[in-house]
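RECORD TYPE: inverse folding
INPUT: structure tokens
STRUCTURE:
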């Protein structure tokens, strides 16, 4: 899928998680719902950091391009080192390592640890990166025609305001665990969810997605999982824009309403 569909699916997934949390008697305070939805919308772009032309690779100037080159090389190396006998060697790592569940869990755990041990400044940094991505993803062309600096300013202001809201007592810094020692540990959850939702989104398209690596399927470790062939579509196809995106909006809206107990 393309950036906007990925980001929308991420936001909708977190709002759905909010509804599930309310159902299981762990309701999210509204800042957790809002911050999580933004982070998840941003994190749902992150797996494409393995491809130079993706939104995410252009969002942070030379720093983003450098990171993209490193992740691309790493993905290619991991693919070639772990491929099965029937799987061809390849150059370029697009849709490999960063499109798997171990990657999602790993980066989520990393960001959780950073938030717990790094405190307020780490939270600010995590929010900045993800709000910038969410703006790039959700506003798409509108963000492209404006300058990068404007998007970064918007990200910085958003991160600053949201962190100050989150830090106030009762606003959810300790949501889910209730332990002041583990403040902000939940920030890794929307990051895991975003990465997974991205891969599932890609699995609906023509090429499929090796989400379950390294679990072998039909003798292949990088088996491109997906829906039945006839249901798959090209990234950016009308199904994505005219069916899936409105669906994500409706599902996300319904999830949010339930999560905040608004009806
Ligand atoms: Zn992708």
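DESIGNED SEQUENCE:
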């Amino acid at each position: 899928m393309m950036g906007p569909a990925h980001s929308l699916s991420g936001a909708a997934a977190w709002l759905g998680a909010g509804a599930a949390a309310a159902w299981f008697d762990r309701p999210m305070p509204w800042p957790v719902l809002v911050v999580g939805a933004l982070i998840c919308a941003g994190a749902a772009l992150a797996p494409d950091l393995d491809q130079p032309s993706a939104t995410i690779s252009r969002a942070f100037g030379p720093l983003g391009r450098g990171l993209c080159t490193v992740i691309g090389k790493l993905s290619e190396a991991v693919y070639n080192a772990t491929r099965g006998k029937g799987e061809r060697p390849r150059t370029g790592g697009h849709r490999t390592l960063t499109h798997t569940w171990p990657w999602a869990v790993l980066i989520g755990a990393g960001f959780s640890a950073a938030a717990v041990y790094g405190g307020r400044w780490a939270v600010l940094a995590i929010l900045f990166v993800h709000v910038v991505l969410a703006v790039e993803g959700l506003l798409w062309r509108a963000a492209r025609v404006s300058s990068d600096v404007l998007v970064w300013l918007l990200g910085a202001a958003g991160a600053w305001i949201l962190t100050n809201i989150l830090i106030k007592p009762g606003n959810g810094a300790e949501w889910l665990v209730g332990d002041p020692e583990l403040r902000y540990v939940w920030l890794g959850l929307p990051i895991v969810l975003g990465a997974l939702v991205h891969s599932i989104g890609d699995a609906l398209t023509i090429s499929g997605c090796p989400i379950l690596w390294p679990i072998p399927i039909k003798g292949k470790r990088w088996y491109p999982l997906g829906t039945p062939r006839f249901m798959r579509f090209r990234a950016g196809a009308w199904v994505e824009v005219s069916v899936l995106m409105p669906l994500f909006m409706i599902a996300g809206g319904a999830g949010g309403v339930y999560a905040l107990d608004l009806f």
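NOTES: The pocket of zinc ion is lined by residues 47-48, 95, 99, 198, 202 (CB under 6 Å).
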